[in-house]
């Protein structure tokens, strides 16, 4: 099952890289220091998910006694999470960027997964990371998930400020009507 989970992540990475071409030109971008504030914990989270043993003997310990269903549950959550992130990326189209930006001609997307949450890419990534953490069943996976959540909460705060400045009352209304990361949870 680890091969399936790794394959899902690899396919997602290839898609993510290829989909980055053809986005709109950037009008405004976050600073390098701002970017580091969410990239560093995210990079550490990814490293812990990929190599849980690197965290040392304590974090390499299993959380629960191994059960057969962990791999299946993990793979399903990875597939659902990455699928949700891809759906969101497709809806954003040329408005997407890996960094916090406002694009030239940026549009406020509120349909598809954006009708459920304001940051569905991060929701999907967190769900996929939770699936990976369940599949590896190591404390390092739980720490990785927490670090990823911290990184995405930080990044959403920056993005929300950019979007509020770009879209004013329209974004304020969208924020009041739509959860940040967890559907139906304000």
Automatic annotation (TrEMBL):
UniProt keyword Secreted, yes or no: no
Name of one Pfam family that matches: PEMT
> Which topology term describes how it sits in the membrane?
Multi-pass membrane protein
TM ranges are: 38-61, 68-88, 121-153
What InterPro entries does the record tag this protein with? Metal_cation-efflux_comp (IPR052527), Phopholipid_MeTrfase (IPR007318)
UniProt keywords (A-Z) are:
Membrane, Transmembrane, Transmembrane helix
Report whether Chaperone shows up as a keyword of the record.
Answer: no
Compartments annotated for it: namely: Endomembrane system
**What is the first-listed, main subcellular location in coarse terms?**
membrane
What PANTHER family does its record include? Answer: BLL3993 PROTEIN
**This chain belongs to which protein, by name?**
Protein-S-isoprenylcysteine O-methyltransferase Ste14
Species annotation: Inquilinus ginsengisoli
Source taxonomy: Bacteria, Pseudomonadati, Pseudomonadota, Alphaproteobacteria, Rhodospirillales
């Amino acid at each position: 099952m680890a091969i399936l989970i790794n394959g899902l992540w690899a396919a997602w990475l290839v898609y993510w890289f290829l989909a980055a071409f053809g986005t709109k030109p950037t009008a405004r971008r976050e600073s390098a220091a701002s970017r580091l504030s969410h990239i560093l914990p995210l990079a550490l989270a990814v490293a812990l998910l990929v190599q849980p043993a690197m965290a040392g003997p304590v974090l390499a310990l299993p959380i629960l006694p191994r059960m057969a269903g962990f791999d299946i549950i993990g793979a399903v959550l990875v597939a659902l999470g990455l699928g949700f992130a891809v759906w969101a990326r497709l809806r954003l189209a040329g408005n997407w960027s890996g960094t916090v930006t406002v694009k030239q001609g940026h549009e406020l997307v509120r349909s598809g997964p954006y009708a459920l949450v304001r940051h569905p890419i991060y929701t999907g990534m967190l769900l996929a990371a939770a699936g990976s953490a369940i599949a590896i069943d190591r404390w390092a996976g739980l720490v990785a998930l927490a670090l990823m959540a911290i990184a995405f909460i930080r990044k959403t705060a920056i993005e929300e400020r950019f979007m509020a400045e770009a879209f004013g009352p329209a974004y304020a209304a969208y924020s009041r009507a739509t959860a940040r990361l967890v559907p139906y949870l304000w």
